[in-house]
């Protein structure tokens, strides 16, 4: 019985530690009071998560990112790839 509980605790610890952020990501996260700067930042991040060949970035996203001081991984697009809106 003890071996089973011990194995379960080790398994839970391994699962919990496997999804941890890097030290750099934690430093960036601690600089802010929330995970996202705004609802627009949240929707932008969900819209562009995962591996996509070309991110979906609107000109209004660029302006909101500047005014709301968004943080996180930088998404780079060429001016001709920006959507109107």
Domains (count) = 1
Number of helical elements: 4
Roughly how many Å apart are the termini? 61 Å
The 3D shape can be described as elongated
Number of strands: 0
In what range is the share of β-strand residues?
A: under 5%
Sequence of secondary-structure elements: HHHH
Helix content percent band: 40-55%
- Average of pLDDT: 87
Structural class: mainly alpha
Poorly predicted runs are none
Please outline the major beta sheet: none
Cα Rg:
19 Å
Offer a few descriptive terms.
single chain; 85 residues; mainly alpha; 4 helices; elongated
Entry summary:
The protein has 85 residues and is mostly helical. It contains four helices and no strands. Helices cover 52% and strands 0% of the residues.
């Amino acid at each position: 019985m003890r071996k089973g509980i011990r194995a379960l605790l080790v398994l839970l610890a391994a699962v919990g530690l496997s999804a941890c952020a890097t030290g750099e990501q934690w430093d960036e996260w601690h600089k802010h009071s929330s995970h996202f700067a705004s609802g627009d930042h949240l929707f932008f991040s969900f819209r562009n998560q995962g591996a996509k060949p070309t991110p979906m970035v609107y000109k209004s996203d660029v302006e909101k990112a500047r005014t709301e001081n968004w943080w996180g991984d930088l998404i780079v697009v060429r001016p001709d790839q920006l959507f109107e809106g």
